[in-house]
């Protein structure tokens, strides 16, 4: 139950702070999990404690930096995705 609560809190941070659509949070966390080989629960803990609360609690600094970089790119990634969708729609 504790793991599920942590993942829910991570989803909340993604939607509230970073503007990720609620429906996309799980896919995003799973993608990052695959890219880093870290469990989703660990990613959620990093997102909550290291990024959300600013507490240096994780020994894996590489994972923290990975998430920071991905979070910085979210608006740009979303804008690029919207642009591609608009371009594809205009071609049809």
Question: What does this entry look like structurally?
Answer:
The protein is mostly helical and 92 residues long. The chain has one domain (2-91). Helix content is 79%, strand content 0%. It contains four helices and no strands. It starts with a helix and ends with a helix.
- Tell me the quaternary state: single chain
Mean pLDDT: 80
Number of strands: 0
Separation of termini?
Answer: 47 Å
Poorly predicted sequence stretches spanning 5 or more consecutive residues: none
Percent range for β-strand residues: under 5%
Class from secondary-structure proportions: mainly alpha
Query: What percentage of residues falls in helices of 4 or more residues?
Result: over 70%
Biggest sheet features: none
H and E string = HHHH
Rounded Rg: 15 Å
Number of helices in the DSSP assignment: 4
Which term fits the overall shape? Answer: globular
What is the total domain count?
1
Topology:
Layout: H1 2-18, H2 25-36, H3 40-52, H4 61-91
Helix pairs in contact: 1-3, 3-4
In short:
Helix content is 79%, strand content 0%.
Key attributes of the depicted protein:
92 residues, mainly alpha
């Amino acid at each position: 139950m504790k793991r599920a609560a942590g993942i829910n809190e991570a989803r909340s941070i993604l939607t509230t702070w970073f503007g990720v659509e609620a429906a996309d949070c799980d896919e995003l966390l799973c993608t990052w999990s695959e890219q880093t080989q870290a469990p989703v629960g660990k990613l959620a803990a990093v997102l909550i404690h290291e990024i959300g609360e600013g507490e240096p609690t994780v020994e894996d600094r590489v994972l923290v930096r990975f998430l920071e970089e991905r979070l910085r790119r979210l608006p740009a990634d979303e804008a690029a995705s919207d642009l591609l969708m608009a371009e594809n729609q205009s071609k049809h």
